[in-house]
Design brief:
Length: about 180
């Protein structure tokens, strides 16, 4: 996803610094689109693999998903900037009718990319709830719902990590023998 933004940044740099006639701007823009498509394909593969792996006891993806979501925060910031630049470029009376379509496409692609970065958590937590490895709690339910909402997906991933940590800690303390009490 960051590679795609590198190409988009090159396009904006070329346009803003009068290199548009010297650089292959449209090719940069197309390469950016190709890398966004690759990111979508990788996310789809991750979804398929997590669905296939539901029956197996796979390690928890919760911490890795939280790390990925935190690492993607600058990407989403750049994404908003690029979207505003593209919409700003369409502020021409002859192009205004295209703006709603551009917004719909940009929001849809960004939302799908956001969903695909957290879908492994949703699949894992649903399976853990089904197998009774994780108890349904307000934090778990809120974390699952937040995975589908912009910006809140990062907080939701954090809630799921915390809830899974509490469940793991509770299961280890309940399965370990009682510690000897110390006399005062």
């Amino acid at each position: 996803m960051y590679i795609a933004h590198g190409f988009f940044f090159a396009v904006f740099f070329a346009i803003n610094h009068d290199y548009a006639d010297k650089w292959p701007v449209m090719q940069f823009f197309e390469f950016g689109g190709v890398f966004i498509a690759l990111a979508l394909a990788c996310g789809a593969v991750g979804l398929v693999l997590s669905l296939v792996g539901m029956k197996k006891e796979l390690p928890s993806p919760l911490k890795m998903t939280l790390i990925v979501k935190l690492a993607l925060i600058p990407w989403y910031g750049f994404n908003v900037y690029y979207a505003l630049c593209i919409i700003g470029g369409m502020l021409n009376p002859f192009l205004w009718f295209i703006i709603p379509l551009e917004i719909a496409v940009m929001v849809s692609v960004t939302w799908i990319l956001m969903i695909l970065t957290g879908v492994q958590d949703v699949v894992y937590v649903c399976q853990a709830l089904k197998d009774k490895r994780l108890a349904p709690s307000p934090a778990v339910i809120a974390g699952l719902i937040m995975q589908f909402i912009f910006v809140l997906d990062v907080a939701g991933a954090g809630l799921l990590v915390a809830a899974a940590g509490k469940a793991a800690q509770a299961s280890t303390t309940s399965s370990s023998p009682a510690a000897p009490s110390s006399a005062l």
